[in-house]
Design goal:
heterodimer, A: alpha+beta, 7 helices, 7 strands, about 45% helix, globular, B: alpha+beta, 8-stranded antiparallel sheet, 3-stranded antiparallel sheet
Chain lengths: ~200, ~290
């Protein structure tokens, strides 16, 4: 009964966590902007809610939230094994009734900052990866009316509209190496910590 | 709970949109699909699309130890190796482009240059630096190398994966696939695409219309010290530019291949190449200037 209730309570927790991630990022973004010489703009794309990601990876599997806080030693060991730094010792994880895992994490690369959801099966193999929100930092130019006017011939009023109208970016291929490094860190986390829970 | 989540729970059909993004092909593959369907139906179609991309990646990735392309690179020197239909299609296309561009486009581009710069894995024996696309012998079903060479299909494999994946989507749905900038719509769109440019200090976006169903863009600002990974077969070195090259074409594989030709050639030499493939190109400068070819 407790397991059922905890499974049912997943959605409100998901909405709260989604909101929390967004607030944390906005706060960080503003802080970075205050201290950098050139203000930056974040181009963000929201893909899935936590609930959608859970359903895509684990369908209707019932799962329970498991409180996990890595110790300093565990974080160091995982960092060593995966060669990827553990940035946050407090994990957001759920365990399915079949022994699989649903993990929320954040990947910070040189150009990108990504919220992800990862499913690991009972043997620690990757069951699925879904990107929840993707953020990439750009210089101030795209909100600079003078710069825009060079090719748009429009006024300041169009800046915000332009920003909302662009849904797709094309350019040099951005490698997903940071994300795959992050997945590697999570599989090592499973190996050293989660599998024993 | 948002409207799409509510519809998801009820399973009712109405106009739904699903947008997903997964790491594949060494980059981020973004799919947006919409139509009169439940959220679950859209999820099923998007799963099939991603499965097709994964299948192509397993055939053509030069970074995977067990891909078909890696096996060919290891075994095709002086030996006939059977090819899958997909790999045959892409290699044959690449050789056609090489012939039409007098070898400017070359999938056997001296890989040692790229290996030394860390853009390609160091697989084994030494590559014959005199090898080029004419040393690839392709028959109806097999491939053989006359010299010790390696093939890197690079962006055209990515474009091909996008083209094949789009074919999975039923025509009643609207879909856009964006694989690290190689982009395809299955419908005419007035949507503006943001083209990445870099002015030496900061990244910016220049909005451009699609002009066709597919688009690909080449630039070099995500690479270390912004050095290009595109090698000139004639100069045996990588070529860098301060601008981005954006090509619109009927299909993504063509768009991607032509970005390399435009990148490596003087613009005046590329107009006929573009015309032959029913494509157009735009050079996008960091200050927002756009020059159309």
């Amino acid at each position: 009964m407790l397991v059922f209730l905890m499974g049912m309570s997943f959605k409100p927790i998901g909405i709260f966590l989604n909101h929390l991630f967004k607030r944390l990022w906005i706060t960080t973004s503003i802080t970075v902007s205050l201290f950098t010489q050139q203000s930056s703009h974040v181009f963000a794309t929201t893909y899935l809610t936590i609930e959608d990601a859970r359903s895509l990876i684990w369908e209707d599997s019932i799962m329970t939230r498991v409180p996990v806080i890595l110790s300093k030693e565990q974080a160091r060991s995982i960092t060593q094994a995966s060669k990827t730094r553990v940035r946050n010792k407090k994990m957001t994880v759920w365990k399915t009734i079949h022994g699989g895992w649903f993990i929320l994490d954040q990947i910070i690369g040189k150009h990108e900052n990504i919220d992800i959801a990862v499913g690991l099966d009972r043997d620690g193999r990757v069951q699925g990866i879904e990107i929840l929100e993707y953020r990439e930092t750009y210089g101030d130019d795209i909100r600079n009316p003078t710069w825009l006017a060079q090719f748009m011939g429009k006024t300041n009023e169009t800046v915000l509209k332009l920003d909302r109208d662009i849904k797709n970016i094309s350019g040099a291929t951005l490698s997903c190496r940071h994300l795959t490094d992050g997945i590697n860190r999570l599989t090592h986390t499973w190996d050293q910590v989660l599998r024993h829970l | 709970m948002g409207p799409s989540a509510k519809a998801f729970m009820r399973g009712r059909s109405n106009r739904q949109t699903l947008r997903r993004c997964k790491p594949m092909l060494g980059t981020y593959v973004d799919i947006c699909i919409s139509g009169e369907a439940t959220h679950r139906e859209l999820a099923t179609i998007s799963n099939a699309v991603y499965s097709e991309i994964a299948r192509i990646e397993q055939l053509m990735s030069v970074h995977m130890n067990d891909s078909e392309l890696t096996m060919i690179n290891l075994n095709a020197y002086n030996k006939d190796i059977d090819l899958s239909e997909d790999l045959h299609t892409v290699i044959q296309y690449a050789l056609t482009i090489s012939a039409r561009s007098n070898g400017i486009f070359d999938i056997t581009i001296p890989t040692q240059v790229l290996i030394d710069q860390g853009h390609l894995p160091n697989r084994h024996a030494s590559i014959d630096s005199s090898a080029n696309w004419t040393d690839i012998i392709l028959t109806n079903h097999s491939i053989r190398f006359k010299k010790h060479l390696h093939i890197d299909l690079g962006g055209i494999a990515k474009g091909y994966a996008v083209d094949r994946a789009m074919a999975i989507c039923p025509s009643k749905f609207r879909m856009c696939i964006n694989a690290g900038g190689d982009m395809k719509f299955n419908h005419k769109t007035t949507e503006k695409i943001g083209i990445n440019v870099h002015n030496g200090q900061t990244k910016s976006i220049v909005p451009l219309p699609m002009n066709d169903y597919s688009m690909a863009t080449t630039g070099c600002f995500y690479t270390p010290n912004r050095k290009s990974h595109i090698v000139s077969s004639h100069k045996k070195t990588t070529i860098s530019h301060p601008f981005s090259v954006c090509v619109s074409a009927p299909d993504c594989m063509t768009a991607d291949a032509l970005t390399k030709i435009v990148w490596l050639c003087h613009p005046s030499n590329t107009a006929s190449q573009l015309k032959n493939h029913h494509a157009t190109a735009r050079i996008v400068y960091p200050n927002g200037d756009v020059h159309s070819i």
